[in-house]
Amino acid sequence: MSAIPRLDHPASSVPETDPLILPFERISAADLPRVGGKGANLGEMARAGLPVPPGFCVTTAAFDAFLAGHGDTGSLFAALEALDGRDVEAARQVAESTRAALGRAPLPPAVADAVLATWKEMGPEVSWAVRSSATAEDLPDASFAGQQDTYLNIRGADALLDAVRRCWVSLFTDRAVLYRANHGFGHRGVKLSVVVQRMVLPEVSGILFTADPITGRRGTVSIDAGFGLGEALVSGLINADLYKVDKETGALLDVQVGDKALAIRPRPEGGTWEEHLPESMRRARALDDAAVRELVSLGTRIEKHYGKPQDIEWCIEAGRLYVVQTRPITSLYPLPEPAPEDEGLHVYASFGHIQMMTDPMPPLSLQVWRLLIPFGRPPRGTGDLPVESRSATLAGSRMFLDVTPMLRHPVLGRVLRGVLGHVYEDMARGMDTLTHRPAFQRGARGGWATTVNASRFLIPVMARFLTRLFITEPSVLRPRVEAFSDSLLDRMRARIAAAPPGAARLREARGVCSDLFGHILVLPPNIIVGVIAHRLLGDFSRRGWLGGTQEDLSALERGLPGNVTTEMDLAVGDLADRVRPYPALAKLLRERPFTEALDAARDVEGGPAFIEAWRAFLERYGMRGPGEIDVSRPRYEDEPAPIIAAILGGVGPASAGRAAGEHRAHHGALAARAEAAGERLVAASRRGLTGAMRARVARRLVRLARMGSGLREHPKFLLVRILELVRGTALEAGELLVQRGALAAVDDVFLFRFEELIAALEATPTPDLRPLAATRRDMLRRDARRAPPFVMASDGEIPSLAVRADLPPGALSGTAASAGVVEGLARVVLDPAREVLHAGEILVAPHTDPGWTPLFVHASGLVTEVGGLMTHGSVVAREYGIPAVVSVAGATQRIRTGQRIRVDGTRGFVEFLDGEASP
């Protein structure tokens, strides 16, 4: 082995106050900046008395001295920081040139001397493992596992120093550079320590997870095991044994003996070799029951020490168990909080999936919804603060509804399953999986308290529903709803405005959120009667009591009267009509910032008329926007980019032949076909002696189905308008706090709960909220990378759904949401403010709420990652008559923009006509 080059300058260049070497016994979690995540964990375990092989860390001070030996590192880091994480080839080239440059840097003599001195003191005659330990590694929210290099069975001084150098350089491997770029970690701020640890020469080694990394269950320990060194397992060279154990009882739940074809063994002179195992050994258990129990006990002890589930590397040498690493299991989705008060298994439904907006929300937005939701609230005494729903729990900056009391109730459980089976099939299937677990079955059945709580809401709703079903004239439903909504909005606006700005007005806004649901309870029966009327028509037709075909029943859902979201979308089409004849106006909107373009439009042909129409649009719909259930998200009046993108999608080359008003004509034609279908249903029911009576029933149900379904979006529209009052109050408070120096930006107000803001506004002097705001914003960014489950259990289990057997080869499975088949070019849209959907393209999106639906005017089909038959995108797709498939897992990653696909909205899958699904 060639000699290691050394830095030819005085050792005093290394700061004396920062140690170059730290033994494990002197390291704690607080030393992470000096020894990286791996080193800090090893030191923490050693200090806790856990069986860790002895060793030491070459600190980041030594790494800094190594970088200093290169000279100009500024240009290296500038090239690294310029990477965006999407261009893999660019990252590969920059990483390769960085490694080449650092490979020529000399090793500082002070570092080499310190490493060799400690090595000799601890035992140069044994083998050593040399492992990288980055400061951005084994963190609570990002493990960075496997991003840097490890070298095993190192013997001799030159080999040791060479391994240390190679670990330093491995901070810039292709995978490490890409990982940091993708996850937003700056390259310049990440440093590398090197762990030098006495090499264990094990008979058996593996990985232990103190929570099941596949199902998410916190009560299950999962162990992978193989013969020899653990490198064969982590490198994927063998199929390891799998052992699953109940953490509480110690019962062995599952044993899967893998085909362990080989074992990696250490060589006496250093390095490793692969031993091909005989048949009798490769299929033998690597662990007996006693070893499994010892591992579970150790894993539980380590988890208790760290307070969270751990991913632990272990090995057994001469019958003795060692731990060589532990890190948090960062892939687990957090458990909902607060935790259940009883010991039974609870089931949670994702509020975001129900609302078709799965992004994380800041604390104020989450509190607004916990105040709005009426279920699970403790009684409120006179003068008490508004209370939040205990059924609304939080995890990963999202809200999850504890539906356990309903699921355990003998009647309500069946009702909930039946409704979900129709509304959101995947959620229903997931709940069914969890409720069949023995742990759930052992829980107390929902009793009288659940019945009473549910009755408070269900009895008034049912009474109003029955009145609308049998008595109310359908034509009066819409004017009554609109008059009620406008009146309530005016009352809430006056209530908030009557309080002075600041703390008092925030209190009033909080009270509005708490009281709102009691006011709008009159609206859901209008929606329910529409859904039930449509279902009754279908059931009665199938039983022969009424006439009609399935095609006519489906047609009733199209061109609905009075749908406020559809009316907004048609208004966007009107705006596109005002732009299409004027290329100069379209060019302004396409190329210049909107505020600037709007000013310039005054002097462009067609501009004044467009400006007038735009102002009218904002007057009616300016409070809407993508993700509008989150009060922190900008509205169209704040950020018009989504609407401008929708307008531009309707004026491009694909729309060259489109006539003005074509979108309204299309909607009108759908409405006319629906009315004709309704008449055919009535006519087909008019037969026999009771035909006149059946025809009257059919006509009433048809009218209720159309009118009630058309009112589906009115409660949401009212809610969004009232939430805009709350949003305005919060922003007003944010401005006051910015003026006092308590916040850096007005929008930071959403990072705090009402009580925190009120206390800050009333305190003298006003406390500095900026550090806490930064911490919470960082948490939001981390949570944004999590994929929330649609349903989960209180022990962390996320149910997996069986794959359909009737799929065509290569197709993606989903839920059939709007009948029909369409072929076309896919357009993957992650942000409706940035991507333009052109007329005739198939919209592929993570989810869609009313703020997304202006895109539907141009879409020929719809594919979403979440959703069910009655969620927003599905209903609007049926109204527009475009085929839709929802709940297509990973659709935005597996389908590429420009790819030709077939959307089968009748059978519920997506086929690829051009290429294959991305992995």
From TrEMBL:
Q: Which InterPro entries match?
A: ATP_grasp_subdomain_1, PEP-util_enz_mobile_dom, PEP_Utilizing_Enz, Phosphohistidine_dom_sf, PPDK_AMP/ATP-bd
Using the record's annotation, list all stretches that form the PEP-utilising enzyme mobile domain.
839-908
Q: Which Gene3D superfamilies match?
A: ATP-grasp fold, A domain, ATP-grasp fold, B domain, Phosphohistidine domain
Task: Note whether ATP-binding occurs among the keywords.
Answer: yes
Pyruvate phosphate dikinase AMP/ATP-binding domain location is 33-332
The UniProt GO MF terms for this protein read: ATP binding; kinase activity
Q: Which UniProt keywords apply?
A: ATP-binding, Nucleotide-binding, Pyruvate
**Pfam families assigned:** PEP-utilizers, PPDK_N
Classify the source by domain of life.
Bacteria
> What is the protein's given name?
Phosphoenolpyruvate synthase
